[in-house]
């Protein structure tokens, strides 16, 4: 069965996309820890990041680097924090989270509630820096 992220790749489920290449996609997390919280995924479905072959793994992180630099230009923050959790969605993904404090990347923290327009605006601002 296709993962929810594969359904985003195919367009079956909508997402606020910020960057796309032949093999990778970046889109806003629907339950963000911070404005600009982005997920970066390989289009090829694989559960665990550390099971990816070396080339795909390197390309995923290089793609994430570009996206992180774009987020940093748009969202006021000290750094872009990086996390790999993968306990909820079995499709490899990197979380990119703007942070000022270690608490900002605490996944037990209450998530932000953003409006559709806020998601659209953040996604397009990040995309404009890529
Ligand atoms: P993890 O698998 O890393 O524990 O968590 C999966 C992440 O994906 C969560 O932060 C969750 O908010 C996000 N997520 C789950 N379903 C969707 C979805 O349908 N769309 C988007 N944009 N994000 C999702």
Model description:
This protein has a single domain, classed as HIT-like (HIT family, subunit A), CATH 3.30.428.10. The protein is built from three helices and five strands; from the N terminus they run H-E-E-E-H-E-E-H. It is of the alpha+beta class. Helix 2 (54-74) crosses helix 3 (116-128). The chain is globular. It has helices at residues 4-10, 54-74, 116-128, and strands at residues 17-20, 24-28, 38-42, 79-83, 94-99. Strand 1 and strand 2 (24-28) form a beta hairpin. Strands 1-2-3-5-4 form a five-stranded antiparallel sheet. 32% of the residues lie in helices and 19% in strands. Bound molecules: guanosine-5'-monophosphate. Guanosine-5'-monophosphate (5GP) binds at residues 4, 13, 15, 27-31, 39, 85-89.
Principal-axes geometry comes out as globular
- Derived from helix and strand composition plus strand pairing, the structural class reads alpha+beta
Rg, alpha carbons: 14 Å
Unreliable sequence segments? none
Number of strands: 5
CATH class: Alpha Beta
Percent helix: 25-40%
What fold name goes in the CATH topology slot? HIT family, subunit A
Order of helices and strands: HEEEHEEH
Number of domains: 1
Let me know the CATH homologous superfamily. HIT-like
Give the helix/strand layout.
Layout (H helix, E strand, L loop, with lengths): L3 H7 L6 E4 L3 E5 L9 E5 L11 H21 L4 E5 L10 E6 L16 H13 L2
Antiparallel strand pairs: 1-2, 2-3, 3-5, 4-5
Helix pairs in contact: 2-3
Bound molecules: guanosine-5'-monophosphate (5GP).
The site of guanosine-5'-monophosphate (5GP) has 14 residues, from strand 2.
């Amino acid at each position: 069965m296709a993962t929810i992220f594969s359904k985003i790749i195919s367009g079956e489920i909508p997402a606020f996309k910020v960057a796309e290449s032949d093999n990778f996609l970046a889109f806003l997390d629907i339950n963000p820890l911070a404005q600009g919280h982005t997920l970066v995924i390989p289009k090829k479905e694989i559960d665990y990041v550390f099971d990816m072959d070396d080339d795909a793994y390197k390309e995923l992180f290089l793609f994430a680097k570009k996206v992180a630099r774009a987020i940093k230009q748009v969202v006021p923050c000290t750094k872009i924090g990086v996390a790999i959790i993968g306990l909820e969605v079995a499709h490899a993904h990197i979380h990119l989270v703007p942070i000022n404090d270690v608490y900002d990347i605490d996944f037990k923290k209450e998530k932000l509630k953003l409006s559709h327009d806020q998601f659209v605006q953040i996604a397009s601002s990040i995309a404009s820096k890529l």
